[in-house]
Design a protein that fits this description.
single chain, alpha/beta, 5 strands
Length: 121
């Protein structure tokens, strides 16, 4: 059975880059959403992993994380953001994020590595 992944990212260029990385993998079914609201409407697709940007238009990543975890407590949520505030990072982890990845040039590969670690467990 393929692992279902949601990528919630409002930056289309960044989303396409992550998509290219994920498309190299054959054991994932990946869905891309430009907003948390759109991803929440599609929770019936039962994602195993959610890659969630913190800085989104509309609902921010912390609000979205809480809703995703309420809807699907077993889903692993990988938070991704360029923000560097350690208090925000701690809030995300306390709210149930699996991990936090700083958005930089190495982030797409670290996202793939984290997904591989989750699915290998």
């Amino acid at each position: 059975m393929k692992t279902s992944i949601f990528v919630v990212e409002d930056n289309s260029m960044y989303s396409m880059f992550v998509q290219l990385k994920l498309d190299e993998m054959f054991n994932y079914t990946t869905h891309f959403f430009p907003s948390a609201e759109e991803a929440l409407v599609n929770m019936h697709l039962k994602p195993d992993i959610i890659v969630l940007d913190y800085m989104l238009d509309g609902m921010n990543g912390l609000e979205a994380l809480k809703k995703f975890k309420a809807e699907s407590p077993k889903a692993k949520v990988i938070m991704v953001s360029a923000q560097l505030n350690p208090e925000v990072t701690q809030q995300l982890l306390d709210a149930g994020a699996y991990t936090y990845i700083q958005k930089d040039k190495t982030a797409p590969q670290r996202i793939i590595d984290t997904i591989d670690n989750i699915t290998a467990a």
